[in-house]
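A reminder from the course coordinator: this example appears on the midterm review sheet, so study it carefully.

Given structure:
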Protein backbone atom coordinates (compact mmCIF):
# COMPACT_ATOMS: atom_id res chain seq x y z
CA UNK A 1 0.00 0.00 0.00
CA UNK A 2 1.44 3.42 -0.94
CA UNK A 3 1.99 6.05 1.74
CA UNK A 4 -0.78 8.49 2.60
CA UNK A 5 -0.33 11.65 0.55
CA UNK A 6 -0.45 14.94 2.44
CA UNK A 7 -1.16 17.84 0.09
CA UNK A 8 0.79 20.99 0.99
CA UNK A 9 0.39 22.90 -2.27
CA UNK A 10 -2.55 25.04 -3.36
CA UNK A 11 -4.03 23.91 -6.64
CA UNK A 12 -3.67 27.26 -8.39
CA UNK A 13 -3.22 30.99 -7.96
CA UNK A 14 -7.01 31.26 -8.28
CA UNK A 15 -7.40 29.05 -5.18
CA UNK A 16 -5.06 31.32 -3.25
CA UNK A 17 -6.93 34.40 -4.45
CA UNK A 18 -10.25 32.78 -3.54
CA UNK A 19 -9.02 32.26 0.01
CA UNK A 20 -8.78 28.50 -0.46
CA UNK A 21 -5.30 28.48 0.95
CA UNK A 22 -4.00 25.49 2.88
CA UNK A 23 -2.01 27.52 5.39
CA UNK A 24 -3.49 30.86 6.47
CA UNK A 25 -1.92 33.26 8.93
CA UNK A 26 -3.44 36.65 8.11
CA UNK A 27 -3.96 37.24 11.86
CA UNK A 28 -0.16 37.30 12.22
CA UNK A 29 -0.04 40.72 10.57
CA UNK A 30 3.24 41.62 8.89
CA UNK A 31 4.61 38.15 9.67
CA UNK A 32 1.76 36.37 7.81
CA UNK A 33 3.69 35.14 4.78
CA UNK A 34 6.62 33.97 6.90
CA UNK A 35 4.28 32.15 9.30
CA UNK A 36 2.44 30.46 6.40
CA UNK A 37 5.74 29.30 4.90
CA UNK A 38 6.84 27.96 8.30
CA UNK A 39 3.54 26.10 8.73
CA UNK A 40 4.09 24.30 5.40
CA UNK A 41 7.76 23.59 6.17
CA UNK A 42 6.84 22.18 9.59
CA UNK A 43 4.39 19.69 8.02
CA UNK A 44 6.89 18.63 5.34
CA UNK A 45 9.77 18.29 7.83
CA UNK A 46 7.63 16.28 10.27
CA UNK A 47 6.68 13.76 7.60
CA UNK A 48 9.97 13.38 5.71
CA UNK A 49 11.05 10.32 7.73
CA UNK A 50 7.58 8.86 8.30
CA UNK A 51 7.04 5.84 6.03
CA UNK A 52 3.24 6.00 6.41
CA UNK A 53 2.96 9.52 4.95
CA UNK A 54 4.44 11.53 2.09
CA UNK A 55 4.20 15.07 0.76
CA UNK A 56 5.52 13.91 -2.63
CA UNK A 57 2.58 13.54 -4.98
CA UNK A 58 2.34 10.27 -6.90
CA UNK A 59 -0.02 9.02 -9.60
CA UNK A 60 -3.59 8.60 -8.34
CA UNK A 61 -2.56 9.81 -4.90
CA UNK A 62 -5.13 9.59 -2.13
CA UNK A 63 -4.68 11.32 1.13
CA UNK A 64 -5.45 14.56 2.90
CA UNK A 65 -5.07 18.30 2.98
CA UNK A 66 -4.65 19.71 6.48
CA UNK A 67 -6.12 23.19 6.28
CA UNK A 68 -4.58 25.20 9.08
CA UNK A 69 -5.47 28.76 9.99
CA UNK A 70 -4.03 31.00 12.67
CA UNK A 71 -7.26 32.42 14.08
CA UNK A 72 -5.87 34.68 16.79
CA UNK A 73 -2.62 36.29 17.88
CA UNK A 74 -2.63 38.33 21.08
CA UNK A 75 -0.04 39.94 23.29
CA UNK A 76 -0.86 40.62 26.93
CA UNK A 77 0.42 43.49 29.07
CA UNK A 78 3.32 41.34 30.31
CA UNK A 79 4.53 40.74 26.75
CA UNK A 80 3.36 37.13 26.43
CA UNK A 81 2.31 36.05 22.95
CA UNK A 82 -0.68 33.72 22.62
CA UNK A 83 -1.82 32.11 19.37
CA UNK A 84 -4.79 30.00 18.35
CA UNK A 85 -5.08 27.81 15.26
CA UNK A 86 -7.87 25.75 13.73
CA UNK A 87 -7.32 22.62 11.64
CA UNK A 88 -9.65 20.88 9.22
CA UNK A 89 -8.76 17.55 7.61
CA UNK A 90 -9.99 17.33 4.02
CA UNK A 91 -9.73 14.25 1.85
CA UNK A 92 -7.49 14.63 -1.17
CA UNK A 93 -8.27 14.96 -4.04
CA UNK A 94 -12.05 15.35 -3.56
CA UNK A 95 -11.90 17.97 -0.78
CA UNK A 96 -14.61 16.38 1.37
CA UNK A 97 -14.13 17.06 5.06
CA UNK A 98 -12.94 13.96 6.89
CA UNK A 99 -12.66 15.60 10.29
CA UNK A 100 -12.61 18.96 11.95
CA UNK A 101 -9.31 18.61 13.75
CA UNK A 102 -10.13 21.21 16.35
CA UNK A 103 -8.24 24.11 17.83
CA UNK A 104 -4.68 24.46 19.07
CA UNK A 105 -3.26 27.00 21.48
CA UNK A 106 0.27 28.10 22.27
CA UNK A 107 1.69 30.75 24.56
CA UNK A 108 5.21 32.10 24.85
CA UNK A 109 6.75 34.54 27.27
CA UNK A 110 8.36 37.86 26.36
CA UNK A 111 9.49 39.31 24.13
CA UNK A 112 6.40 39.67 21.98
CA UNK A 113 7.91 39.68 18.51
CA UNK A 114 7.77 37.91 15.17
CA UNK A 115 9.90 35.07 16.48
CA UNK A 116 7.37 34.38 19.25
CA UNK A 117 4.57 34.12 16.66
CA UNK A 118 6.71 31.78 14.54
CA UNK A 119 7.47 29.55 17.53
CA UNK A 120 3.78 29.48 18.52
CA UNK A 121 2.77 28.50 14.98
CA UNK A 122 5.41 25.77 14.74
CA UNK A 123 4.36 24.22 18.06
CA UNK A 124 0.68 24.27 17.09
CA UNK A 125 1.30 22.74 13.64
CA UNK A 126 3.37 19.92 15.16
CA UNK A 127 0.68 19.22 17.75
CA UNK A 128 -2.16 19.31 15.22
CA UNK A 129 -0.26 17.00 12.86
CA UNK A 130 0.40 14.47 15.65
CA UNK A 131 -3.31 14.47 16.57
CA UNK A 132 -4.37 14.24 12.90
CA UNK A 133 -2.23 11.26 11.85
CA UNK A 134 -4.28 8.55 13.62
CA UNK A 135 -7.50 10.12 12.33
CA UNK A 136 -6.19 10.06 8.75
CA UNK A 137 -4.94 6.46 9.02
CA UNK A 138 -8.31 5.28 10.33
CA UNK A 139 -10.31 7.31 7.80
CA UNK A 140 -8.21 6.22 4.81
CA UNK A 141 -8.90 2.57 5.58
CA UNK A 142 -12.58 3.34 4.88
CA UNK A 143 -11.95 5.87 2.09
CA UNK A 144 -9.62 3.80 -0.13
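Designed residues:
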Amino acid sequence: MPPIFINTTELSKADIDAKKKIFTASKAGAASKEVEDLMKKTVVDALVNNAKFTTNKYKDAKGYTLKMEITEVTVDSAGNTACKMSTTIERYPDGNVASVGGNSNAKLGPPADKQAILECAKAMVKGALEKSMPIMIEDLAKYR
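The longest helix spans residues 114-143. DSSP finds three helices and six strands in the chain.
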